[in-house]
Amino acid sequence: AQTVTQSQPEMSVQEAETVTLSCTYDTSESNYYLFWYKQPPSRQMILVIRQEAYKQQNATENRFSVNFQKAAKSFSLKISDSQLGDTAMYFCALGQGGSEKLVFGKGTKLTVNP
Amino acid sequence: GAVVSQHPSRVICKSGTSVKIECRSLDFQATTMFWYRQFPKQSLMLMATSNEGSKATYEQGVEKDKFLINHASLTLSTLTVTSAHPEDSSFYICSAPEGSSYNSPLHFGNGTRLTVT
Q1: Which residues of B touch A97 (CB under 8 A)?
Q2: What pLDDT band is residue B1 in, cutting at 50, 70 and 90?
């Protein structure tokens, strides 16, 4: 079975600072994808970043980057220069393919304070 | 860009009635769609995989007779909550991959908040 664990239910950060959200996962598959989704109060699921497991290089999207440690099955999200608009729930997710069904973690509620 | 349209965004119904939620892929065809359920302040749980032209695949513990899924065309999947009860009140979200390749992007609908009174 595939599982995703987010151990930080809530986090807060000051505007312009950096914050890291943790995620660990478990899967028996050798080929899989990892995702971070943002869910603001509107409840819309917004893809933040994704990582293919076969790629060693950590994915980066502007202020968002991941630290993918395959052996440790860890996939943390770093948000640099935090902005007020980053306030949201963040879900880590695991899928067997980029377009397959996903297993989600329980989420981390991030609050960016002015 | 590709969008998944989900309707209604909110619905209130009385206990015992049925409610239909639609999920449409705009500007692309989706042979597969996924239906998730999200309880307040909790994660998304996959309910079922909707397949165009064939029966849906339900996750363990999901009642297929209660949550009817119909993938009528390459752009439309519907979830019908039959004989709704207050415990069915939840947030339902659909998603669809744009394309059939392993690497196709996944698009989410805006979700439907169902309240059963």
Answers
A1: 102-103
A2: low
